[in-house]
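Backbone shapes recur. Consider a single case.
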Amino acid sequence: MATNLSVMIKYSDGGFTYLRDEIASSDGTFGNLLEIQTDASGLVNQTGNVSVGQADTGRVAIAALAKVQSDSVATGSYLGGGFYSPQGDLICPVQGGGSNVTGLPKLIKGGVRMQTGVVFKGMWMITADAVASACSLVVYTTDGKCDWFSAAGSDGADVAMVNKEGSTIGQALAGSVCAAAFAVNPSLYGLADDGITAGVGAYFVESSSGTLKAMFAPCQNSASPIPAPWIPQTFRIEQNDTLTARANV
């Protein structure tokens, strides 16, 4: 069974680019974050297997949608992805979902100019009732910074969500103010499906003193026609703040 992650990108000049590559299901770690290049099927009029920044140098992306598609099943959950700089930093996240997702959301950053070295990267996971389902949160701040935090769930235990460098939300975004985030957990029955005994139904941000500063309830992001939505929340991120997931089955 082959699964592809495709991305429809709209530019300020009114044109489009279509990215698509077959990739395996992720375990939720950033080692499985893979580049998606221009579609090489020949079914659309474009050159295939080229990084988006090289293919569309000078154009400004204003909207995009990422979509997970498998053969004859609808179990793919889009964890996240977006445009990355030549230095490997997340420039702007892109919303998306599974095979049923539709729409063309505007980029939260307004626009991203393509240049050589800019790439699109993303990852997905098979939806299942498993505590190891990835916990994923993409954060956007008022000063335009973006970062992505992830972890594999552990039954009844707190797990720190960190970015691809292994940094906590406080270490990565200290001094910035959160504007919004989108949250995904590809579990059939959610983070806390055993009553109120062991799990918490949202990812939570705490200060060094344990004060609860924010909560982000994740979506399954596989069967819904709506892309994982941005959740508006405003709070200042301090150096010792932590982001935690607590799952149970």
About this structure: The chain has two helices and 17 strands. The chain has a mean pLDDT of 92. The chain has one domain: 3-247.
